[in-house]
Amino acid sequence: MNAIRAGFPLALLLAACTDAPPAPTQTAPPSPTAGSPGTDTSAVASAAAGTSAAPSASASGAAAAPLPDAITHASTSPEPGPSILAEARVDGAALRTRHVDRLKHDVSAVTLLQGGSPHDLGKRICEAAVPRRSPSTPVLLKPNLCGFDSIKDPRKTGGDDGVRGRTTDPEFTRGVIHCLKERGHQTITVAEGCGHSHKHWLELMDLNGYAAMTRAEGVRLVAMDDDGVFDTQGDRPGQPLAITGIAGTRVPTLLLPRILAEHLDRGLFISLPKLKTHRYSVISVGIKNMQGTVMLSDGSPAYKQKWRMHRELNAYIKQRKAKEPEDRKLYVDSLRVFAERMVDVLEISAPDVVLAEGAPAMGGDGFQVLQPSAEHVAIGGTNPVLVDRIAAEFLGLWNHPRLAAELLGHRTSPLIESAARRFQLDLRAPAVTGDGADLLKQPRPAHFKAMAPFAIHQAAPATAPATAPAPVTSASVPELPSTPLPAPAPPAPPAPASPAPSSTAAGATGAAPPGKPTAHAAPLGSDTLTLDGRGDEPAWARAAVAAWDTDFTGSATGIRTTARFLWSPDALHVLFELSRSGLFTDRAQPVDAERQKLYTEDCVEIFLTPDPASPRRYVEVEIGPFGHFLDLSVDLDARKYVTTWSSGLRRATTQRPAAHQATIEASLTAPEITRALRAGARLPMGLFRMEGRSPRHYLAWSPPRGSKPNFHVPAAFGALVLDPPVP
Questions:
Q1: Is 434 exposed, middle or buried (0-12, 13-18, 19+ CB in 10 A)?
Q2: In the predicted model, is pLDDT for residue 418 greater than 70?
Q3: Could you give the CA distance from residue 529 to residue 723 in angstroms, rounded to a whole number?
Q4: Residue 514 in contact with residue 715, Cβ under 8 Å?
Q5: Which conformational region is residue 714 in: left (phi greater than 0), alpha (psi within -120 to 50 degrees), or beta?
Q6: Which of 16-30, 293-307, 544-558, 702-716 has the lowest average pLDDT?
Q7: pLDDT at 427 over 50
Q8: Residue 727: predicted pLDDT
């Protein structure tokens, strides 16, 4: 793990992916049977036209349009044809024919949803976009788990572990799993390919929460790596399989992990990328997420050869390290080749559906510079190219004139442009549905920091009329001088908290920001709770998770907090689980009396509005990791803060100092609260956490996004929905 923990060398910090390339002199020559990359266009055209000699896996009635799926209205996948697997080899020609035909004709709507927790979004986008299959169909989920530079020590980086905010949230994946289980699917596998050793894989899965999540859900978690474990043990999911019929592509040495080949053959393959910008490929969504599946036979082990997909970039990196004048054409040419290779991979192993997690979406460079979106969204569809097209627009990087000036004519990610040309797709106005579709009716902000020396930071980017980007060559667009934009000024350090509420909160505009999250309280029903600070009663397992690691500005911190809610006629119950907790508490103070200024120590806070018609009148309950508490009622208009008000709080806590974790289990029984507890009620709510001494973190589930950490901004509250009892 030393190479990961210590950070990567300069070459990798500039590189596009997570596996470091060896020195250029170590690059293996292409296979003698590789064929010429220049034959790529004709080979693809032949496959698209159905003239390949390889049998099509969907040979039945290619001229007839498939019936739409009754749930998603997406095109259904073709009926299974002959198996593409035979004697540990994969029929690449059949896969290419099948996928090219599907992607050329699939113009089904892309779904854009907004609001709610990562779990809620994962479940909802699955329900909206994943075509129904027989419950016996095995499902492969491929999140982005490796799109980061290095693991960091949160104690030295203000809480940033180097991973969260850059990779797919495990709660989003859990939501997709719950959706699939409700449809009856029992055989579900989560898989990714990182390029790390098996030991490092295990450590990463513990850090990012996927090990715990998959254990709890009873699903498999495997690496698509020939790492000496996953390629040799059990059913060998990471075993690399040879692919026939791809000699004319730009990836003639591509191999397929066995687990992926099996699901392409007779399963359902769902890609779950993180919705973010990428310093090299501009955005990283459906097409770029396929890089995690890449194995190449140019070297051994095959899973550590991913860097060869962008090997032309080495010359540019070498130039930059030598402080030579920048050659932008060299950079863009390498990106164009990388784009063509990624589209070749897409032809061979296209996912059946892409569900992108943007809770929040990330601008910046995708690795070191993170700019979270104001909204929590999910984008899904059955055509990865159309999903990427809508994702680029959401990130403000579709048809962008400044991007075109910097990338020699490319007005969006070259991966999207290459795929659109390859599959003959019209990207001018793809259909978009879902409750977040209106987010695209106005120009989107753009925050992008490239590997090349330029950045784009625009609150409302100017856009030309929406037209599909035309194919460009290096000769058709004059080379422009490199004139980097200055980087945005760093945010001011947080000022000391001013917890006393004010009637005019900093940063409040009177209108709630779009995409406010929603938490759900499950009915307690006939179950019982024992408040012991453990949270292990079966009822809690029914409660949806509200999770966050953002601070009051909306920036990711890596300090994760989760909350679950249950309700009964006589109480609102809440379970907080705190990670990376320093347990900064004055334990000499009694826990059986209100703790004034508890906000100066570690604590969580609930702001709840019992009467939504009076949004500026709410109650506040603060609870520390050792049980200290403070509660009060607030009337901002009257400037009344009644500290004698009682929430009827009952609570219990446990602490695990060695693991830097704490659990808070509580019940609120005040009449003002219980009167509001009825099925279907939607109560404005804010969830907050103060953590640490130096630096001090002010964390918010629904960030107020003010200039100072003031939580008393009712317009920024999310909502707590009381779910009705299940009949």
A1: buried
A2: yes
A3: 18
A4: no
A5: alpha
A6: 16-30
A7: yes
A8: 64
CB 294 within 8 A of CB 313: no
In this structure, which amino acid lies at residue 174?
R
Residue 606 has pLDDT above 90, yes or no: yes
Query: If DSSP states are collapsed to H, E and C, what string results for 518-586?
Result: EEEEEECCCCCCCCCCCCCCHHHHCCCCEEEEEECCCCEEEEEEEEEEEEECCEEEEEEEECCCCCCCC
Per residue in 167-188, pLDDT (tens digit) is: 999 999 999 999 999 999 999 9
User: Phi and psi (nearest 5°) for 220?
Assistant: -75, 145
In this structure, the strands spanning 85-86 and 89-91 are: antiparallel
Pseudo-torsion of CA 147, 151, 157, 160, nearest 10°? Answer: 50
- State how far the Cα of 33 lies from the Cα of 52, in Å rounded to an integer: 19
A 10 A CB-CB count for 533 gives 19
> Do the Cβ atoms of 709 and 495 come closer than 8 Å?
yes
C-alpha 148/C-alpha 156 separation (Å) is 18
Which residue would you say has higher pLDDT here, 444 or 157? 444
Has residue 35 got a pLDDT over 60? Answer: no
Mean pLDDT of all residues in 341-351: 97
The span from the CA of 298 to the CA of 29, in Å, is 8
Give the per-residue pLDDT at 515.
65
Query: How many Å separate Cα 579 from the centre of its chain?
Result: 20
Rounded CA-CA distance 681/288 in Å is: 41
Which residue's structure tokens are 């024919």? 97
- What integer pLDDT is reported at residue 465 of this predicted model? 38
How large is the C-alpha radius of gyration of the chain?
Answer: 26
Q: How far apart are the first and last CA of the chain?
A: 51
Q: Write down the pLDDT at residue 607.
A: 97
